[in-house]
Amino acid sequence: MSGKETVVLAYSGGLDTSCILVWLQEKGYDVICFMADVGQVGEDFEAAREKALKLGAKKVFINDLRKEFVEDFIWPGVQANALYEDRYQLGTSFARPVIAKEQVKIAMAEGAQYISHGATGKGNDQIRFELSCYALYPKVKVIAPWRIPEFFERFKGRTDLMEYAKEHNIPVSATPKSPWSMDANLMHVSFEAGILEDPKAEASADMYMMTKDPMTSPDKPDILEIEFKSGLPIRVKNVGDGTEKTEALDLYLYCNDIAGKHGVGRIDIVENRFIGMKSRGIYETPAATILLQAHLDIENLTMDKEVRRLKQELSLRFAEQVYNGFWHSPECVFTRHCIAKSQEGVDGIVKVSVFKGHVYILARDSPFSLYNQELVSMDVQGDYDPTDANGFIRINAVRLREHARLRALKDGK
Questions:
Q1: Which residues, 6+ apart, have CB-to-CB distance to 126 below 8 Å?
Q2: Which residues belong to the active site?
Q3: Within 10 Å of residue 396's Cβ, how many Cβ atoms?
Q4: What is the pLDDT of residues 322-348, one digit of tens each?
Q5: How many helices (H) and strands (E) in the chain?
Q6: pTM for this structure?
Q7: Exposed, middle or buried, 187 (CB in 10 Å: 0-12/13-18/19+)?
Q8: Would you say 244 and 233 are in contact if contact means Cβ atoms under 8 Å apart?
């Protein structure tokens, strides 16, 4: 043992965290690097491992969290119909707690007293990482370089980092840096910062990674049958070619492929960060967009009206809890349990058409459907007496008549 204190660094292999890796060693720490495979597009994990070891990392952990990410984090989001501020499907927000959970697991197993990350001091990710770490490992200490004056005053931008990399023989990609920041996982890709900080600036057509331009996507739709059990997707079948997926990760990746092919899941929004400022983000969330529309439909077919109203309120709270970094909080655990309870009986199949950037609902069926065709039919009276509506309407009109009376008094009529 070196006698030095140990820090587990959330490492990406990029310029920032490579510089942080060397800087932490300058500060006297032994550094263990951790990389989470959550389905990043085009990530060369072995090259990153080799780079970290050459830069002095004592160990490098590269852990495949894709299955856990889908089953334990994305699936509760599907059950909740989770949307932050009505549009954002929380792709980064769901990924951070699964990454932090594994980082804490490694830190505890390795006897590390510290964890570190490369999140900026203005964003949400610093909050999400650290709240999760403190919830799971209360005694841990966090080293957040971009909040340490010694670090951020030394490295005021990419030029300073590049110079530091040159001085310390840190390999730097020859590929020109994109004029925006990107974060990717199997649920989505997000783009922000750089030229996108101007909300008037339109996104470049060649920026997108997971989805094709809807204008040039196929002229023939893909028809999918999506089966749910307790609000969770358990099977997807392509009606056209017979392709069928039942394992959670495979199912999700297949929906990504189909949605991406048809340009489904793009949004460009301004959102409210938890830390108190507005930011502009562009997101591609293909599979989740299909599953959201399908789940909303089967839920409406099978769920009691008043239960659904309560569940919608919980879903709003859940989305805020996840976005703000409170996945591992007692209130979020409670909210997830309540939402899961609401999904009992949300079983059935929804048929959708995926085409030119849109998801169209075609049909649905469930063994627990609350839809009574005879009751609702305009051609059959069924177990319903139309005269009952007279009293129903009169009772509901009492309040409106009283309001009209009061308004007349105020108007002097």
A1: 117, 119, 120, 144, 146, 147
A2: 16, 96, 125, 181
A3: 9
A4: 999 999 999 999 999 999 999 999 999
A5: 14, 14
A6: 0.92
A7: buried
A8: no
